[in-house]
Amino acid sequence: MQHILATTDFSSNAYNALFYATQLLRNKACTFYILNTYEEHTPLTSKRIPTGKGDALLDQLSDESEEGLKITLHKIVLDNGNTNHMFKTISTKGDLVEAISKTVERNNVDLVVMGNKGTTAAKAIFMGSSAVETINTMKLCPLLMVPGEIDFEPVKKIAFVTDYKRSFNLKVISPLLFMASLFNASIRIFRVLESESLDETQKSNRDVLKQYLDPVDYKVEWMPNFSNKTKTINNFLKDSGIDMLTMINYEKGFLKKLVQGSLIKKVSFNLDIPFLIIPSED
Fold this sequence. Notes:
Residues 1-147 form the UspA domain. It comes from Maribacter arcticus. This is Nucleotide-binding universal stress protein, UspA family. It is a single chain. The chain has helices spanning 12-24, 54-80, 96-107, 129-137, 170-182, 200-212, 229-240, 254-260; strands spanning 2-7, 30-38, 85-93, 111-119, 124-126, 143-147, 157-161, 186-193, 218-224, 244-249, 275-279. With 282 residues, it is α/β, with parallel strands linked by helices. It has two domains: 2-147, HUPs (Rossmann fold, 3-Layer(aba) Sandwich), CATH 3.40.50.620; 157-250 and 259-268, HUPs (Rossmann fold). Strands 1, 2, 3, 4, 5, 6, 7, 8, 9, 10 and 11 form an eleven-stranded mixed beta sheet that branches. β4 and β5 form a beta hairpin. The model is unreliable at 118-126 and 262-268 (pLDDT under 50).
């Protein structure tokens, strides 16, 4: 049984991420936890009690959260129609990122799913503050970021971006293997070329990774770093027809620099594919 946590603010992007997850895991028995959080400044409806009425306001926010979850639950059950899937709703007051961490621990969650704000014209992901904070703090399980307005297609090609500078173990690689197993996907190990050859540590890490990936179809690829890593990765994803991007979120790695830097305020990744972020053990 897989335990999946999907966050919602009742937007179309959040629902799309939830629905995508149900289709991705269509052949797995799963329990989906649908989480909504609220605080006194949560903009749920326009009919707002004056903020001076603290308890009354929180009661209203709680009612709105519960009602929104009921509507979401009804819709996903109808749209999904999978008897192998169970759905539970969680409404809680407080910070979203803290609520995610608590829910993951209490329910042994295997995967957190979040929707991203996206625009069809730009085919771009703009990560909101909650998404960035979740990426920075999530240590217990992988996080799947699903771009807005994406239609589900079976995942047949997964890109795993690495520089081989850190060691791998089965716990870190297991989420990648699991995703590949869902639709018998091939894995493209991709490295942005920063030097002409690998050092001994990188070679050793590469060989260990190959051993872990031996049960699946995989291919090792690289591209020269013509301009910057972001652009090089984007070009590879588009040229190779990749269905899902995967990275390990190391403490001082490329992904951490990306989400913490000013680049995130721009079109950081021109992604129209899901992004699986695996926590490291460093």
